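Table S2 (continued). Query chain:
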Amino acid sequence: MNRRKSLLVALLCAASGSVMAQSVQDGLKDLYYGKNLSAKQTFEKVIAAKPTEDKAYYYMGIAQLAMEDVAGATATFQKGLQAVPTSALLQAGMGRIDLIKGDAAAAKAKFEAATAATQGRDGDVARAIADANTEVKGGDRAYALTVMDKLLNNEGRRKREMYTATPADYIEQGDAYRYLGGENGGKAIAAYEKALELDANSAEAVMKQGLVNYNARLKAEAVADWTKATNMDPNYAPAFNELFLFYTTPKKDQLSWEKAAEYLEKYMAIADPADKTKNEYLAASVAFFKKDYDGAIAKGQAAMAGANEIYKNKFSLLVGDAYLQKGDSLNAKKIMDDYAQSVGESKLDSSDYKLLSTIYLRLKSSDSATQEQYTDKALAYLEKFASSTTVKDPDTYIQIAEALKTARKYEQAGDWYDKANELRLANKEQLGAIDYFNVGINYYYAGVNVSPYDTALINKSDIAFQKVIEEKPELGTGYYWRGRANFAKDPQAQSGIAKPFYDKYIEITEPLGTDKNKSTLSFAYTYELLYYYFKEDKANVQIWADKLSAIDPNNITVKQVRENMASREKPAAKPAANKK
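Corresponding output:
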C-alpha cells in the first residue's frame, strides 16, 4: 500500500471512528442534561451509522417530544418500526403517542404487547411504559407502578433471569409513586434514595425529591433539594429550571422576579448550545424578568420571524406580556390578537387564554359600548383558560373568581370561589372564614342584583355565611350577613327569619361601639324596627326607632313608621250633624 493510499484509509477510519463515537449513551447524556436538540442530532448520527438501533429511534422520539414536536416523534417511532418491526421499545413509544392523542385503550394494548414480548424484564421498555403513563395526561399511574414493580421484583426468577436494577429504574419507580400522590410521597422519596445508593451523584434523584416536597407544600425543603442538585452537578440544567419555575409562580411566598432572572441566567449558561432559537428565547426571557421590557420586546420580535410555530407562540406571549407589564395594553392586545388570528382559535392554549384575558381586563375605554366589549371578551377568554388549563390549583381558581368579581359577574365568581374551596378540601387543606365569606358575598350580590330577587342564589349565600359563623362564631360578620340574606327573603320583616341573626350580631357589635359600625347596625336596627312595627308592639317600636335615630337622625324608615303609628292612633272623625 503506497503512502498516499494508506493516508486516505487512515482518514476514512478516523471519520468512521468519529461517527461511531456518537453512541446511544452520548444521546442519553444530552437528554439527562436537558439538551434535547443535541440529543436528537446525536441519535440521528447513531441511526445513520446503524439503521437498526431501536434505542436510538426511541430516545430520539423522546427528545422530539421534549421539544413539543409530536408529529416528528411519531414519524421517528414509525420509521424505527419499519427498520426494526419487532422492537418492543418502539411499540411502547407508539403507545405513548396514542396516550398523547387521547386513545388510552390503543395505548394500553401496545404497552401490554411490549411487556409480553419482553416478559417485563427489559429496563428500557419498562421505563418507557411507566414514563408514558406518569408523564402523559390520561395515563394510568397505578399501571406505571405495576410495570416498574414487576421489573424490579426478582422473586422466583432463575439466576440467568435476574434483573440488575439501575438508578434510572428506581427514579422511574419514584416518579410513579410521586404521580400517584397522597401517602405515596414517602415511597417516592425512598425510591429516589435507592437510586442515590447506586449513584451518589444523581442530581436527578435529588431534584425529584424536591418535587415530592413541593407537592407536599414543603416549599423550603423543595428549594433546598433543588439547590443541592445544582451543587452536586452544576451542569444539571433541569434543577436550575425548577428553581426558575418556583420563583415565577404567582404565589405570595414564591414570586420573585429577581430570583427568577438569577436562575434563568444560570440555566441559560448551561443550556443546549445547538438550540439557537431556544437560547434567543432565554435571552429575551432574562430581559423580561429583569424588567427590561424594551429589551425583551426587541429580542423577542427579532427572533420571532425565524421561529417555528411553537416558538412563535412563546415569543408572542413574552412580547405581549412585556408590553402589558410596561403599561402598553393596546400594543399587548395587537401582538396577541395578531397571533390568535394567525394560528386560529383551535391552536390557542391555556397560556394564550390567560394572557388574553389579562390584557382585555386591563383595557380601558371612555366609550361604554367599547368597554363592555373589552370586558365580555376578557371574561370569555378567562372561561376558556379555566376550561383548558390542566392545573387544578386553588390559587388559579381564586384568580379567576377575583377577575369575575371585578367585572361584577357575581354568580360566576361565587362558583369559582366555591370550586377553589372544594379543591382545597380535597387536598386536605384547612379553610378559613374568609374562604366561605367570598363564596357567600358573591352569591348574595348575584341574588339581589336581579329583579325579582333570585332566592336560590340567596339561599346559597346563606349556607356559606353559616359556615363563616362555624369558623368564627365570636365575630359578628357571619351573623350580620345571614341577617342580610334572610332580610332579602323577608323584606317586610314579617316572618322574622332574619331576627335571630341580627339579634346575635347586635349583641356582639354594640359593645364595640356604634360609631364604628353605623352602616351595618343600621340594617340590623331597621329589620328589628319593621319586625315590631308589623307585630304592633309599640314599646319595642319605640326602642328600635330610638336606636336607629341615634346613629342615623334623618332615617326615612323611622320617619315613616312614626307617621304611620301616629295615624293609627288618631280617633276617627265624627260625622257632621244634620241641619234642619
